[in-house]
Amino acid sequence: MSEKIITRFAPSPTGNLHIGGARTALFNFLYTKKYGGKFILRIENTDKERSQKEFETNIIGGLDWLGLEYDESYKQSDRGEVYKKYIQKMLDDGKAYEAEDKVIRFRNPNTKIKFNDLIRGEIEFDTSDLEDFVIAKSLEEPLYHLAVVIDDHESRVTHVIRGEDHISNTPRQILIQEAIGAKRPFYVHIPLILAPDRSKLSKRHGAISLLEFKDKGYLSEAVINYLALLGWNPGTDQEIFTMKELIEQFDLSKIQKGGAIFDIKKLDWVNKEHIKRLPPEKQLEILLKSIENESYMTGEPELDVAKISWKKETPENTLKHLEEAAKIIEHGGNLMEYAEKVGKGNVLWPVRYALTGAEASPDPFTILEILGKEKSLKRIQNAIMVLKDAS
Ligand code: GLU
Questions:
Q1: CA 151 – ligand 1 centroid, Å
Q2: CATH number reported for the structural domain that contains residue 308 in this entry
Q3: Tens digits of per-residue pLDDT, 347-361?
Q4: How many CA within 13 A on the CB side of residue 125?
């Protein structure tokens, strides 16, 4: 029988959960779910100065919103005794030593380390460049590499799936593994996420807290779908996936080597596609939420007379169209039929603008529906008055 797959997502709570971290968590989650394994959340807070509770809360909140449930979780700050035992043993075995400045250094055997990355293939490092690196500041203060290796070993992690920026950490971690007699996991270094111009992803491009996408009204299903496509594809044309489909289709073999481009327009499209698949009442609810703070929802629109008419249409004609539209709305007639007769934009633009006073908003039919007949007619009458006053 093959070994049960165990993965972990190991964020350091030194910042909010952003797109890159969420994608790492998702890939670990999908791989584990696909093969019925175990997914662990490990909070890597050995750096006491930079780790903050607020970031931990943000990370956990982000995972929760995405529905990336873990089977087990722990924090490195709760494991001091475990690390101490290992450090002591390494000292006793001569694998580490206390240096003059009292820090604990690894006794580097200065070998070549070769490992097989499941995405990038064979990678080789000459570890003699690393010298006798520091693994702990004292028995009580393990540093990052040591804690990672001990935890992965004790948790029996089989696959280390993490960002490509960790490739250079791997040789140190393998050296420590060998020193404590730990089994080497499979390494899966996933490609970086880049901005559309292939520069490093920054706040301007969407390297924001994942929860900001929630606040902006994105569906978690859509964000999951989009994250999955950052560096992975199913090998078919399918672009819209449910979580269930992702779990079925995800595989490490289809992860690309090259950087993945973060494109907010694509995310918006994926989000729209997911919204379209929801029941109508749910769609309306989402729409209402997205416009609840717009000025035309909280008060009466203020109209700029120059903006009421569509493109080259004259104010006189616009006046006629609005009067006709008011009649049609009043009697429950077919506004679209009229608009199609005299030019869609000539009618639909002034109606929409009369209702909202906004350059951009949902279409006039949706706004009519939301405002109701009475309010809508009042606003159209107001636009008619503004036009008449200006003539
Ligand atoms: N704590 C590391 C980070 O937040 C990840 C370590 C790992 O996945 O091995 O980047």
A1: 12
A2: 1.10.10.350
A3: 999 999 999 999 999
A4: 19
